[in-house]
Amino acid sequence: MNSITSGHFYKNVMKTVEAAGQLIHINPNALERLKTPRRSIILSVPLKTDNGKLLNFPGYRVQHNQTLGPFKGGLRYHPHVNLSESAALASLMTFKNALLGLPLGGAKGGVCVDPNKLSQGELERLTRSFATELGPFIGHDKDIPAPDVGTDSQTMAWILDTYSKEYGYCQTGVVTGKPVEIGGSMGRLSATGLGVVYCIEKALATRDQNISSATIAIQGFGKVGLHAAIEAADLGGKVVAVSDVSGGIFKADGLNLPDLVAYVKENRFISGFPSSEPITNEDLLELKVDVLAPCALDGVITTENAGKIKADIIVEGANGPVSSNATNILYENGKMIIPDILANGGGVVVSYFEWVQDLVWLFWTEEEVRNKLKKIMDASFDSVWHFAKEKNQNMRISAMSVALQRLEKAMKLRGQT
Questions:
Q1: 108 carries an active-site annotation
Q2: CATH class entry, domain 191-343
Q3: So what CATH class is 38-173?
Q4: C-alpha dihedral over 338, 341, 345, 347, to 10 degrees?
Q5: Catalytic: which of 11, 15, 48, 108?
């Protein structure tokens, strides 16, 4: 397991797990089970390119824990995908699902590849190859993948089709995040960003503020950040800054989100958006705003820049954007951090809804999905907030503590400790 546990991201997650475990006096046997994944799968994913050349890409699926139910988690296509990162993300999925009260375990994986360098045909062949290799380890009652960085609903459709061909009939429950035409759920595309906004509303309420009077900066304008910005603006929030890989933009009296979305659709990146001031991703993190939502990659707020963060509330739309040591600095400076396992839980909640709908072949309207999502996000926030107030702890260790308590109880009932 050395290649798993040696990664910085994994160590950062386990540091929080151990601190929370100590706080709640968790059974040491339960903690030991949760510190390493149950199963790690390394695959060779062959691809015949458009010019006929055969390439092999490393693929991974880490299945961390299934005490509460089938493994669940995304598949990403990114050049930095590796075993340790997959293990860290898989463990976060276990704790996220436990915190949200979902009957699911945690898994994560992907292919170490830059999808932007592949044609559409190559992406399809790579995905079908990956699905074939991964097939024996996934299924609606075993492990249910979903989209992540570099993958989307089309990726899931290819996996569904490839997997179903092995069985001779349609297996809609094998993946979530599918197009609605083949068993996907209404509201899935915006779910993670919407969950971020629900958490922003709850966090502001603890400080007697309302989103309609709040200024918001969002790092990342992809699947999570884009929808978080749209949903926040629809509720009256003033989104003053956003960023992507091309850099950031700032407008003190608020960005015009419909115009920005249209601009990105045409130009791909936000750089050059009219009537805005260009800033760097680093500048965005240090803006004086009410809410900062890092919705891009992990490790963007560390001990080096934590003291420069001026936002009162940090909502982790991404996985692991704030290090554990930076969390302590921010907490001491009076900042509230809504941790990833709570803040970006909207995606997996609606993935759970999709899975349930596929199993019973009964589908809900988008309004029903949004209402059900809000109930779960609000209840989960309240459980963490009450723990934090009672124990005088930050929200990160409180969220992990609530998750560990639920997992420990389930492990005890199943005789796993």
A1: yes
A2: alpha beta
A3: alpha beta
A4: 130
A5: 108
